[in-house]
Description:
mainly alpha
Amino acid sequence: MTGRTQHTPSRINRRWNPIRRREGAGCAGSALRAAGAAVLAFFAFSCSSAPKRPAEVFTDRNAAVAQIELGNASVSKGDYANAHLFLQEAWRLAVSADDPDTRVRVLLAEVNAYFNEGKRDKAQELWTHAENEAREAGNATLESTSKIYRARGTLAEGLGADAVSDAERKRLAREAKAVTVREMPNIKSNPLFTAFAWKVIGLAEKEEGNAAAAEKAILEAAAIHEKNRYLEDAAYDWYLIASVRSRAYNYPAAREALRKAIQFDRRAENANGLGMNWLALGTVEEKAGDIPAAIAAYTRAAEIFSAAFLKAEAAAAAEKARALKDIDF
Length: 329
């Protein structure tokens, strides 16, 4: 099965909702307006119904989170140019607020973008940056998260069979799994980081050839994403499960998993994910020996990619269909 992008957890669960003054709770009413600024100030600070000033303002931090979400959405669609633009603005806002937590979260989102773009050296540089920032800020959760992200990056998953020996691939998988298991207690308060950790464990188990353990771990991630309606993440979880099943030659179960991935990506209107799901389904059908079904799946993938202006992906999917049957697109 071919690879597809994944996006990772990035939301800050601490949005400030201003305390609104209740209607009809005016303190002294028109008397305040007539009494002048000094009296107004006195009543504003002494009246129990006056709006309370927030203990902390999150304007820039929430704006940064919004940019991270837009960046993650662009990564899921394979639109890395716009993803980096959104994340550059997120970084500007995080720096202006001088908030260590937000800085680390932006860095991790950038790591995700560069990693999925295939720029592993740049991702490695930002992993180090994020981990150092989290450590200096004394944030154990984000420091452990950064280490788990780095562990994900050390996996040979996604590299060609000739790029890494089987023994080295398994060694890297064992190390990544050990790091993730060690750091998981520090991230248990954040379900999205926990889901990502389960996914890393699942990928590591897959690299070691442990299909049952791999699927069990990724299902843990899927349960979290489905419960919290992270549709694109849930779709990617099922895509990975399909990959695990396909690698174990369980093609009917792989087909079932890809159908679930398609359902979630349809709900998310994630064209890039849909195209990759159909492309993977074509590969599964081809391996299972159902050539007409494989041609149909490859054709569907080409159509989706073309509609989403993903020309290179559309051409690659169309070529796969043509290789099985001479079809003029």
